[in-house]
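Model it.
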Amino acid sequence: MKKQNSIFLGITLVIVIALSACTAPPAAQPAAQATAIPEIVATEAATEAVSAVEPTATTAPTATLEPTATAIVEATATAEVADVTPATEMVTAAGNVVISLAKNTICRTGPATNYPSVASIPAGQQVNAIGKLENSTSYTYIENPSVAGSYCWVFSEGATILGKQTELKIIQPLPSPTPDTKANFSVTYSGIQQCVGGDYSFNMVVANTNEQIWESISIYIVDANTKIATKYSSDHFEGWSNCHVDWYQDDLTEGEHAFISPFNPGHFDYNPKGGTFFIRVKLCSEEGLKGICMNKEIKVLP
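Modeled.
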């Protein structure tokens, strides 16, 4: 009996020890939680660190570049507008004056026929007038309709001008081109003569003042008031008397001159006395108005 009790007590002790061993892990649970908590905190801290760095890296370049780009564009736009403003103001100031030419007219870089031509203005086309010469109304400074933003001079005697010419600015033209010293001539007005039937012819003297030999001539005469014009051309230099050809020569050499009175064609069927006329003479080195050509223009008051 005692032996059985000893066995029973031994078994009971083994069971108690086993049960104690089974209840031991709950005591270690706090240590496991303490280990897990630092890992989570470290991860959150790392995430916060990344979040803090990423916005800084992304925001800094963007904030720097955009204002710089905006500042450059605005400055450029302002500078370009400032450069254009003076021309715009000049056009606006004279924008109320419009000119319509009576004839097809060449627009030149300066107010004379020895300046290069840059455009041809058809008769009747309206263009904006910008300026004028200080002491003459023969030429007007206009907007070049062929090239936007450019300007040129047109012979405007006899043209229709809409608006107040007093609003036009005084323009100082470019210096006159240096003429070819080996080609030149002069034109001198010497009066008018009345022909049979009530017709009138202009008298002029054309002289060769340099080395170039001239072989053909054309004359264009326009009444600035009525806009009536006449034309004359020839491969000879003809001398006139009483509205008839009295003599002629084939060319005009250096130092020679010819008395020219263009008639039929070239005359007017009314008395030009008291009017304003412009005479344009063209000489060329070859017949048919070819080769080297030069123009001269004079204003006459018969």
